[in-house]
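Moderator note: this is an archived Q&A kept for reference. The question asked for a predicted structure of one protein chain; the sequence and the answer are reproduced below.
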Amino acid sequence: MKSALRLACWLCLNLAAGEFGRAATVGGMLAGNTVWSPAMNPVHLTNSVTVPGGATLTVQAGTLVRMTNGVSLAAQADATIDIAGTADNPVLVFPGAGTNAWGTINGSGNNSYVTIRHAELANGGINFGSRCTGLVEDSYVHDVRSAIGGSSARFVTLRRVHVKNYGSVEFNNGIVLLAEDSLFEGMTAPDSDALEIQNGPPGSIIRRCTFRHSTGSNSDAVDCNGSTNVFVHDCLIYDFSDKGCSFGTATAFNQPASVGMIVSNCLIYRVDTGLAVKDKSTASIYHDTLADCTYGIRLYQKYNPQTLDQGGHINLGWNNLIWGNGTDVLIATNSRMTVTYSDIGGTNMPGTGNLNADPLFLNAVQADYRLAPGSPALGAGKDSANLGAQFPVGAPMALSHPRIESATVNNGVVHVRFWADSEKSYTLSASDTVTGDTWRTATNVPTRPLPVLVEYSAPAAAGGFFRLQTP
């Protein structure tokens, strides 16, 4: 078995020790187009560095950047920061010493660009300012209060990003966001949210992401205030002190509401409130499973004065499964909910095809919310679909259920690839027959500090069929 795993911080620090004798010291305004390469390791920023208009800073794969306390790396208008790591040779951006906090990698101004691929950032964050376009891919950002954020940027993409041990990821004032295939975990600060969109225009998408483990009080997974047409789908959300998804206004009843929000094919469990819609906000829900929360759905008016239709509204929904919560649905004064073909516990919710029947989860204690044989939710949905989320959901690196990503044969060797979540152990088994009459263990993968993309290779004769299991 061989595996590709992000370098752990302690390993990177150890590898970098002793390299300061040939460090490249940098600070101030760059003269023009600049390249930082591994030959300069470590590139030590003693003062904040600015990329001027018309110039590009390229940080090559394998470069180690050390940031002195509080310093930042910034792109002005018409400037570009391009951090270009690779899967086998990431760019590392670490404190100058120990775990001291540095500032941000940021851009601001018309035609400013910040692109970060295959990088690890520790104890500092990323910020996209006015009119900046940002991309973060295949990167690990950790141990920082404000991990990724921005205000008045143009368009921001987060793709296959792992954010851990942090306070917030927050986007404000007109940013359109695409966040996909990403893992957000380890919220530590009170009154902070895993991913927040404030005053967002139509078009933001949050898909195939996993949000988990908030130890800070009053912490939401996805929080949107005054935003429009945000699409949340195929997401896994659990273990948050407050809400899974929260849609409302920012600070008062007369502030813009969140309207046209969609939550589709998501699993939300073991949070205080699975879905909250407040203060004139509107949402639609499809194929969602909300279970083991204090409240499954909560519709209410948070801010005074209490007036007609100023609560939260679910205008449309079908094929949902809301069961096993302390209160499955709370519809407070001035709120309303319209759904069909949904199984909602503790209610006789009006609407075509609605049920109030135990869905027979396969194993709710172990968070397996698939439907057991004989479940009344099987085929009970619109167009004879099963009710609830269709699994697996979440980020590939932290899925709700194990999945083999690919299996190929090349020159008589079979290659099987799968993501192993850090919190689970895995067994890959092989069989000579499609019916799996006899399964042989191909490899075991234990729990580990970070998710790992595993590739198992063996002669094709060792087995033509594979299955992947977790305990």
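Archived answer notes: The radius of gyration is 24 Å.
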